[in-house]
Amino acid sequence: MNKVKSLYIHIPFCDSICDYCDFTKFLYNKKFAKDYLKTLKRELEHYSPFFVETIYVGGGTPTSLPADDLVELLEMIKEYSGNVKEYTFEANPENLTIEKLSILKKYGINRLSIGVQTTDDKISKLINRGHSFAQVKQAVDAARKIGFDNINVDLIIGLPNVSKSMFQRDLENVVSLGVNHISCYSLTVHPNTVFYNKNVPEPTPDFARELYDFAHEFLDKNGYIHYEISNWSKPGKMSMHNLTYWRNENYYGIGLGASGYLDNKRYKNISNIQKFGVPDFVDEMEEVNLNDLRTYQLLTNLRTIFGLDLDKFKKTFNEDLLETKKNEVYELIKEKLIVVEENKIKPTYEGMMVLDQILLKLI
Question: pLDDT grade, residue 77 (50/70/90)?
Answer without folding.
Answer: very high
